[in-house]
Amino acid sequence: MSIEIRQLLIRTQVHPAPAPAQHRASVNAAELQRLREQVVADCKTWLADRLRVHGER
C-alpha cells in the first residue's frame, strides 16, 4: 500500500466524519466495507494515473 493511501486511511480513522442521524441505522457494516474498498480502489487508480501522467512529462 502506498504512503498516500495509508495516510488517507489513517486520516479517515482518526477524524471520521459523523454520519447524518437518519443514515446511521440504514447502512450496514457490509455496505460500509464495500464503500471503503471502492474508495481505496478509486484512490489507487487516481494515483497510478497521476504518476503515469507525471512520468510522461
Written overview of the protein:
The radius of gyration is 15 Å and the shape is elongated. It has 57 residues and is mostly helical. The protein has helices at residues 3-14, 21-24, 29-56. The two termini are 25 Å apart.
Write the layout of secondary structure elements.
Elements: H1 3-14, H2 21-24, H3 29-56
Keywords:
3 helices; single chain; 0% strand; 57 residues; mainly alpha
TL;DR of this structure?
By secondary structure, the protein is mostly helical. It has three helices and no strands.
Could you give the order of the helices and strands?
Answer: HHH
Measure the end-to-end span: 25 Å
Number of helices: 3
- Gyration radius, in Å: 15 Å
Structural class assignment = mainly alpha
Mean residue pLDDT: 78
Shape: elongated
Largest sheet: none
Unreliable residue stretches: none
Number of strands: 0
The proportion of residues in beta strands is under 5%
Name the helicity range: over 70%
